[in-house]
Design a protein that fits this description.
429 residues, alpha+beta, Sulfite Oxidase, Chain A, domain 2, Immunoglobulin-like, 5-stranded mixed β-sheet, 5-stranded antiparallel β-sheet, 9 helices, 24 strands, 14% helix, 30% strand, Sulfite dehydrogenase
């Protein structure tokens, strides 16, 4: 945030920052009286009581217990949007509705999916994980074997390398945030550190890579550097406290924190230690891009810092003047989010947003900042900074560096234009 803007905040009784009505989040949080019932037009207690008395549901017995909870009937519109191949329905994607969610944890049933040949129905009693190749002792584990090992839990995101790829188009796509950036989700994952079972197998000195293979009909396989496998990867058995769901890799998946989603192999059945990568389809024909220099970009594993304002955004409409809370998500595969800045004037000035705790490495981070809108045309933007010093780039900067042949790892700043009528659209600046 520019120094003069901070000074303006400290000296102003309105706590307003230059740049489209953004408010300093620290002073704002100390002034709870700003958010009064009058501000939001809340009902008086008498009116509210009368409304409740008229509602029949307050006098009727409720529904009985259920064996497994489900969303309220009034929230059933919060769903994943699916795009499948008509000729091969098991091949396609579904997006997490980020624009409908709060906090940082994605419900298991709304976690994005990418399937190549459908979801297999795997009996955990029959499933096996084979570790072989450049090891001293090839090992085979049943699921019950793996469940006996000491486990760890960690909150982290998984993001498809192709997430947000519509940003490479020459014209900005007009769709809700989750259906543009929603091939990214964040969960609590619990399982056994991959390093534990690899060390039990005994790694031979020539081993530099692991070839991971899934148990689905597409026989997904992909190469993972051994150093990463020994660092922070998990054999994941649980998601958000319960056993993995079938579409999320039941009964066993690989978790590779902070790296592109294709490496997080679901229905994991084989780990082959090798001296070289396997050069599978998803690291040659896919996930390899031509750069402006004429060289190809390959093995671009790490997901770079990224942020997006989820509210307000496309699909919302501002229906009044006054105070709003700008909210969004930021994440980076390089570690923790250090800060998020928000602009309400198209990037001319920036204000630092409040980061909601906990702020964890390789995990979604929720940011918030208050904003006063008086009906003017504005452009909202956010940019993320991570603890490794990387900064989310402007779109023009990303294209200059990566060229026009991009498809994967799009992490440019997203801009939302708001008209005097409160209508919101996605724009390029």
């Amino acid at each position: 945030m520019p120094k003069q803007s901070l000074n303006a905040v400290q000296s102003s009784t309105e706590f307003e920052v230059a740049g489209g009505g953004l408010l300093d989040r620290r002073l704002f949080l100390k002034q709870g009286m700003i958010f009064t019932a009058a501000t939001w037009g809340a009902l008086s207690s008498q009116t509210a009581t009368a409304e409740l008395d008229r509602e029949s549901w307050t006098k009727q017995p409720g529904k009985p217990f259920s064996n497994y909870g489900s969303p309220s009937d009034y929230e059933k519109k919060v769903i994943r949007w699916i795009m499948a191949n008509d000729d091969a329905p098991g091949n396609g994607v579904s997006w997490t509705p980020l624009h409908e969610l709060e906090g940082i944890v994605t419900p298991s049933g709304l976690h994005f999916e990418r399937h190549h040949n459908g979801v297999p129905a795997i009996d955990p009693e029959r499933h096996r994980l084979l570790i072989h190749g450049l090891v001293k002792r090839p090992l085979t584990f049943s699921v019950s074997d793996i469940l006996q090992y000491p486990m760890q839990s960690r909150l982290c995101f998984i993001e498809c390398g192709g997430n947000s790829n519509a940003g490479w188009r020459s014209e900005p796509i007009q769709t809700q945030v989750g259906y543009f950036h929603g091939m990214a989700s964040c969960s609590e994952w619990t399982g056994v550190p991959l390093s534990v079972v690899l060390q039990e197998a005994g790694i031979k000195g020539r081993a530099k890579w692991i070839i991971a293979e899934g148990g689905d009909a597409s026989m997904m396989n992909i190469s993972l550097p051994l150093d990463k496998a020994l660092d922070d990867c998990l054999l994941a058995l649980y998601q958000n406290g319960e056993r993995l769901r079938a579409e999320n890799g039941y009964p066993l998946r690989l978790l590779v924190p902070g790296w592109e989603g294709v490496l997080n192999v679901k229905w994991l059945k084989r780990l082959h230690l090798a001296a070289k990568p396997v050069m599978a389809r998803n690291e040659t024909a896919k996930y390899t891009e031509l750069l402006p220099s004429g060289k190809a970009r390959q093995f671009s594993f790490v997901m770079e810092p990224k942020s997006v304002i989820t509210h307000p955004s496309f699909g919302h409409r501002l229906d009044r003047h006054g105070l709003y809370q700008i909210s969004g998500l930021a994440w980076s595969g390089r570690g923790k989010i250090a800060k998020v800045e928000v602009s309400a004037d198209g990037g001319k000035s920036w204000a630092e947003a409040e980061l909601q705790e906990p702020v964890l490495p390789k995990c979604f981070t929720r940011f918030r900042i208050p904003w006063r809108w008086q009906g003017q045309d504005v452009v909202l933007k956010s940019r993320a900074f991570d603890e490794a010093g990387a900064v989310q780039p402007e779109r023009a900067e990303l294209i200059a560096r990566r060229g026009r042949h991009g498809y994967f790892h799009y992490n440019a700043i997203v801009s939302w234009a708001i008209t005097e009528a409160g209508e919101i659209s996605h724009v390029y600046l």
